[in-house]
User: Fold this.
Amino acid sequence: MADFNFELVSPERLLLSERVTEVVIPATEGEMTVMANHAPTMTTLKPGVVTVKTAAGATNRYVVFGGFADILPTGCTLLAESAVSSDEFDRASLDKRIAAVKAQIDENNHSDEHLTRLEQFLAELTQLNEIVVAA
Amino acid sequence: MPSLKDLKNRIASVKATQKITKAMKMVAAAKLRRAQEAAEAARPYSQRMSAVLSNIAQAVGGDADAPLLMTGTGKDQTHLLVVCTAERGLCGGFNGQIARFARDHVRKLLAQGKTVKIICVGKKGFDILRREFASLIIDRVDLREVKKIGFENADVIGKKIISLFEKSEFDVCTLFYSEFKSVISQVPTALQLIPAAVPEGVSADTGAIYEYEPDAGEILSDLIPRNISVQVFRALLENVAGEMGAKMSAMDNATRNAGEMINKLTLNYNRQRQAQITKELIEIISGAEAL
Assistant:
């Protein structure tokens, strides 16, 4: 199968840069699978799990919290706000994030639009929590 | 004239100081390397970020619904200055340099009749600016407890700036930090965050027509707040590297000065000791002659 270059970048460092055949990314509008020669697309991400199939055949999973993806026929770059390999993923940090968002909603001084965004974010985080527990 | 014992004590104390400054220099050198590595590692993200940003900005073009964060409020009455300095001193003129640069800027703005608000990141800048502009400082961020600056620290500051902007607390936001040129040279720099100056001509992959999901405007309004946090993060990293560089050269100077001082004191000490021996000899000889 044709492979392409995939890069996973977090603000702190370049996490991954290698040849892959298939990447499943949690885009805001639903999950999408990127393969070689994908049409150029730019999309935002929601918190979720990125599944990477490398050219060597291994499957790696990473947990990301938001960010965006820049997809070109020749490669795909994922700029994640924070990304960790699912093996190293720490449940406590997710719980902390959920608690922080809940606290923000409880502050109750937000505009409606902002509140909706926060609630959506909370829903996405909770969903991610379930996925991780199931895995 | 200090006695021999006094001189001895002084030499011992200067030697102790020299040991401390030498150790501090070594620590700063190790930390500098780490800070440089961190700055290096953060580079790919900010590079891609600006490439993507300029791509989208071109796609959106002069659209009326471009986010306010990019276009600004159209006024420039109230200025928010985010001044990033170090948490600790003993690093030469590093903190003073940034604070002075920011102070001149504040004075200029005040002279033009603008309203100025200041957020201080780091204790040292706060201490310096407080003397003159205590009433203008609206907030301060303390990073003293932070061992290694992560993106979360920058994100907190970024979110703070954005929420102030959404409450229309200011029109223009400028970030003050020290650009790390080399170990011996750090240049205080002002960077305008809001309205965001969109980087131009960095897009390497022009020609590709992107599909946007959701639409370009929405991605842009998601990207720009992120970009602010990234800029703050970069500034903080540069600051840490700069601080360590400045500390290293300051401590190097201190060590050298202590060395010179020890040489001078030792010379003095030996001279006095010799004088004393001569004096004693003369006393003995003249005593013997008198007999």
User: Anything to note?
Assistant: Chain A has two domains: 4-85, 91-134. The longest strand of chain A covers residues 14-27.
